[in-house]
Design goal:
- The protein is of the alpha/beta class and 161 residues long.
- It has a single domain (12-124), classed as Protein-Tyrosine Phosphatase, Chain A (Alpha-Beta Complex).
- It has helices spanning 25-34, 47-50, 58-65, 81-96, 111-122, 127-142, 150-159; strands at 12-15, 39-42, 69-71, 101-104.
- The protein has a 4-stranded parallel beta sheet with strand order 1-4-2-3.
- The model has no long low-confidence stretch (mean pLDDT 89).
- InterPro entries: Prot-tyrosine_phosphatase-like, Tyr/Ser_Pase_IphP-type.
């Protein structure tokens, strides 16, 4: 769940791909259903690449069938004009659809982390709130806690970018 700036609770989520053929997908699919997600911004897949795995995520499949999922098939170069153009399409899609929203790429950290940071900034989050939210990635994905010796090094590295 993303809560920063003026983003209300239970409105925005970011995570891994619920329709990727991997061990985490069923958990992500369950989260999408339990959170009653109404709109999905799929940063990783094209319509064609996600189609074979949709039956494993019936709730997500229903969202696709109702036109509430946009498949943007984005790369990971945030400075690429194609990335920027697709991000715009995704944000406009969000404006035309109601929440709660789920933003995902494959792992939920790079592309989804960047999009969450943009949304947080647009909603008035402080730099610290944005950094703290992104650092949750390291806790969830790499099991790095705030008390871990690596945590300050990772956090400091993000301050330089």
């Amino acid at each position: 769940e993303v809560v920063a700036g003026k983003i209300a609770r239970q409105r925005l989520y970011r995570g891994c791909n619920p329709v990727l053929d991997d061990a985490r997908a069923p958990y992500a699919a369950k989260l999408v259903e339990q959170a009653k997600i109404k709109t999905v911004i799929n940063l990783a897949d094209s319509k064609e690449s996600m189609a074979p795995n949709l039956p494993a995520a019936p709730y997500y499949q229903t969202l696709v069938e109702h036109g509430d999922v946009i498949a943007l098939d984005m790369g990971i170069d945030f400075n690429d004009p194609a990335f920027i153009a697709k991000l715009k399409v995704g944000l406009l899609f969000m404006l035309d659809h109601e929440g709660p929203y789920y933003v995902h790429c494959n792992e939920g950290k790079d592309r989804a982390g960047m999009v969450a940071a943009v949304l947080e900034a647009l909603m008035g989050a402080t730099v610290k709130e944005i950094e703290d939210d992104y650092m949750v990635t390291y806790t969830n994905y790499f099991h790095v806690s705030k008390t871990d010796a690596k945590y300050p090094l990772i956090d400091q590295n993000h301050h330089r970018h």
